[in-house]
Write a structure and sequence with these properties.
about 240 residues, alpha/beta, Metallo-beta-lactamase, Chain A, six-stranded mixed β-sheet, 6 helices, 14 strands, globular
Length: about 240
């Protein structure tokens, strides 16, 4: 189940292997708990009889990790993040231009409290959390540590059909891709990730991005200008 949190309208997702019920609390994974996610996650877990058993970040930008430490520490679990983005858990303004840092500083501050435990996501492997097995795919470009998380046979809200789902973070959005002008942004790396990683996803894959609405790989292949066969070089 998704929730939109914070002033930058980031998507935070709560993933569980099955529904909980009174007297039968089920473990859940929280993906991208950004600013304002703590009370939202607490409410969702209470209403759906879930408990936090894992926290995973698709990348390290503060609008996706600002509440990661608070949620993970309260549950006694680690924050999973790619090592290339780990520094952003505590230094959200690192490398930003003066103007952008001045705009963001009043909202998040210069430094975030570190989580007590961090576990690295690395390589194109599988990570298991709360009884859910995520297939990881490194997809740098928006940040060096961007990671796609894929699941099979997922039941989404209001959709009775099992879906193959990929959480794309800020790599791919409906009709667009993540911006490349922030610290760590790399157009050449993004092009490689789009061509070698994103394009390998099946057409039926349901994409759950870090911002905006869900989409499908088929829809993005047909209409996303950055995924077309004649896509121009990124800059």
């Amino acid at each position: 189940m998704p929730a939109v949190v914070g002033p930058w309208q980031a998507n935070c997702y709560v993933v569980a292997p099955r529904a909980g019920r009174p007297g039968d609390v089920v473990d859940a994974v929280i993906i991208d708990p950004g600013m304002g996610a703590l009370p939202v996650v607490a409410d969702l877990c209470e209403r759906h009889h879930l408990r936090v058993a894992g926290v995973i970040a698709t990348h390290g930008h503060f609008d996706h990790v600002a509440d990661a430490a608070a949620i993970a520490d309260a549950a006694g679990v680690p924050v999973h993040i790619h090592p290339s983005d780990e520094h952003l858990l505590t230094h959200p303004l690192e490398g930003l231009s003066t103007d952008l840092a001045a705009m963001i500083w009043p909202v998040v501050g210069e430094r975030l409290a570190p989580p007590r435990r961090v576990q690295h996501l690395a390589g194109n492997t599988i990570v298991e959390s709360a009884g859910v097995s995520f297939t990881l795919m490194e997809a740098p470009g928006h940040t060096p540590g961007c990671t796609l998380l894929s699941l099979t046979g997922v039941l989404l809200d209001d959709d009775p059909r099992p879906r193959d789902v990929t959480f794309t973070g800020d790599v791919v959005f409906a009709g667009s891709i993540g911006r490349l002008d922030l610290p760590g942004g790399d157009p050449a790396a993004m092009r490689r990730s789009l061509d070698a990683i994103v394009h390998t996803l099946p057409a039926s894959a349901y994409l759950l991005p870090g911002h905006g609405r869900a989409t499908t790989m088929a829809r993005e292949r047909a209409g996303n200008p950055y995924l077309s066969p004649n896509a121009a070089p990124l800059s």
